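User: Sequence in, structure out. Go.
Assistant: Echoing your sequence, followed by the structure tokens.
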Amino acid sequence: GRLEAVTQQMGYHPQYLDSFLKTQHYLMHMDGPLPFDCRHYIAIMAAARHQCRYLVNLHVLQFLRAGGDPQWLRGLDFIPPKLRNLNEINKILAHRPWLITKEHIEKLLKISEWSWSLAELVHAVVLLAHCHALASFVFGCGCEQDEGPGVRGLLKPSSPGNQCFCEATASNGCSQDLLRINRKRSLDSCMELDSLRERMQRIHMETEGREETRLLQQDREEGEGQGAELSIADPSVGLFSLADTDGEVTGATNLACYMQDPDFGYQDFARRDEDQTQVFRVQDYSWEDHGFSLVNRLYSDIGHLLDEKFRMVDGLQSSAIAKRQGCEPSVFKRGIWNYIHCMFGIRYDDYDYAEVNQLLERILKVYIKTVTCYPEKTNSEMFDRFWKQFKHSEKVHVNLLILEARMQAELLYALQAITQYMI
């Protein structure tokens, strides 16, 4: 039930990590409209859309601990119709959130005995958006590669950790221990990536032996492993074949059972010269003026936690990044945020989108789009290759911006549809 790789990556920014842990804990383990087993099953459905074994494995175990029916882990055909009806909105939110309409909301709220309440649906929507965005972070920082048998992840944690993910809150000792550990680790972010890689290799030698390290270096030089080993440099290799061999129930050996219409994926939003009626204009519906109040009214206090997380990622220091890009930190972060929202059809009338091409080099834009729109195609080689001159903590910062911008984009579309239904 731990997210050690995720918390260790986020630990480069300990203030954000604390905010993230509070939100995650509230969503999964505090009072709310949805039963605890259903929360974890919804998380499984969300993570499966991006073939994210890391999150599926975590929530399968949490589902069973919460008293969930093991039969449900056989797939969507074995779950109650009420949960199965959530599949359509899960699919759309994950890949093309601009397609969500009030009709989708109405269908879920008016299905006789299997109907959802507004509060339950808001809780489910926040869970879906949270897990979709977290899957982007998992793939973007290479955490997924650490999970698969036969796959040697390039981003092994730089320090041993046993941080408790599920029970951490701002007020308990675990979270405070996390902060103390990560404040120390945040000093490591001052190293350049090459120096960090050397330190990770030394730890790797101590834990897995010198021969493994030699093979890791050899694979990196050759670019792609030979023989029967799975190359992490090949994003086309499916994750379904990575079956567990120890007999432990994970439910991740065939992620396809947790989703329908697996071929449904991201498509580029309508071009500027096409019909503009679909464009989502933030001045008409924004998080600050509309989404926050709605979600907080229907799911008490979650709006405050989400808002704190959005503000926290915006407030992270990125002076080094901005300096190297020749601009102010706020300008650079806004460029990344608005570029991500633009890919989902969300526009800000007060922003000059020509700045995006000036601020973001092509390799960075390719990385951001891949992690945002189809994270399952990301591998840790991509993380290593973009911005070679930048610090590890700065790359993690970019992935945090991707996580939060993507989550807010999904929430804006879903909450707008709920608002339209209520009106």
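User: And one key feature?
Assistant: Strands lie at 280-281, 346-347.
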